[in-house]
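COMPLEX REQUEST
Ligand: flavin mononucleotide
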Amino acid sequence: MTKLQGQHVVLGVTGGIAAYKSPDLVRRLREQGADVTVIMTASAERLVSPTVFQAVSGETVRGDLWDEKAESAMGHIELARWADLILIAPATANLMAQLAGGSAENLLTTVCLASDAPVVLVPAMNQGMWRNASTQANRKKLEGRNVRFIGPEEGEQACGDEGPGRMTEPVDIVARLGMGKVAGILRGLQVMVTAGPTREAIDPVRFVSNKSSGKMGFAIARAAADAGASVTLIAGPVSLTTPKGVERVDVESAIDMYDAAMDRIGSTDIYIGAAAISDYRPAQMVAKKIKKIAATFSLEMVKSPDLLAAVALLDNGPFTVGFAAETDNLEKHALTKLEAKRLDMIVANLVGAGVGFDRDDNSAVIMWAGSRQAVPNMAKTELARQLVAMIASRYRAVAGAEASQSRPAAS
Ligand SMILES: Cc1cc2nc3c(=O)[nH]c(=O)nc-3n(C[C@H](O)[C@H](O)[C@H](O)COP(=O)(O)O)c2cc1C
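STATUS: Structure written out below.
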């Protein structure tokens, strides 16, 4: 049974050209067991006929706030109470501005204001409209009120522009809601995940390490295996059970992890570096246990090899996803790492007192060329499923773009 089973979903469809994809979204939501009521704005009705939505949802499509017949069947407040989830796809720049401003000028915005249900927006618009400071201010305002965003995606647009603004594909929307099946979205692909801390020996009994529990990396390995990938998990010293169907390689130190990963990287399609590899290690390991004689003791540390950067630099290397665990300036540091190491994607998460390491929940901001996606705090298992769905859709977009570039031009 999926989490959507028996859930009441109000699907708002607004006046974006991507509205032609929304009937497919209705179909996929219903496949997951949801009851879907569609609310269309007047602009959306000019782009796609309500009859299409009626046919795929099996329900009367709502549009006019002042429709007496519809109001007497299920008034707008009843509809707001009925909803377990309000999903708006596509969400126009106009809709974002209306919600950010608290407007209730049509049925959709009125239902959003009146409902306690979570609201998820799937924006779709021209890249200039998305990048516009007003739209970005509205996004921030809405995120601050716990409105969740899925997308937009980067790529070629209906208007011929290139950039962020494409609506996320219905299959990926359902997967990212964390309610759908991730099954099959990575079928046939080889995924390598690194997880946990490393231990850098000082002497035979002491080491330098960090607080990583490995839970996030293990959850990702499991989600990737559920998604149909062949998964190799390179794990630092952790006490976690190997996810079903995953090949596990245990290592201790940063150098062990580097060697284990590089030995197996050749056939990898997607590399996800979730391990907290020690940046520095003792310059040398003392062969015998250090005795407590001296009043002070200093340790010379040298840099460990940078596995993530090495993978990203490989010729014909895998799609490379890094993690940035930061205590401050999260997005700034993550963006610098994304660009400096030429990663395909980075998952930025705060760590420190009470957040990040050794917990069962986490939040993150996922960033890639020109785009970002904030994921609110949730169980690491759920975050892992959403991450895998995002990685799969971005991997397909990049692989598709590379394939079309290498294709000979039609004569
Ligand atoms: C053909 C066409 C396509 C449009 N596509 C988009 C779009 O993808 N995204 C967007 O934000 N606005 C788009 N617009 C503009 C919106 O339709 C317009 O802002 C409208 O007021 C939105 O109303 P609504 O948010 O109530 O649906 C488009 C307009 C036209 C005529």
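REMARKS: Residues 14-18, 41, 43-44, 92-95, 124-125, 129 surround flavin mononucleotide (CB under 6 Å). The longest strand covers residues 371-379.
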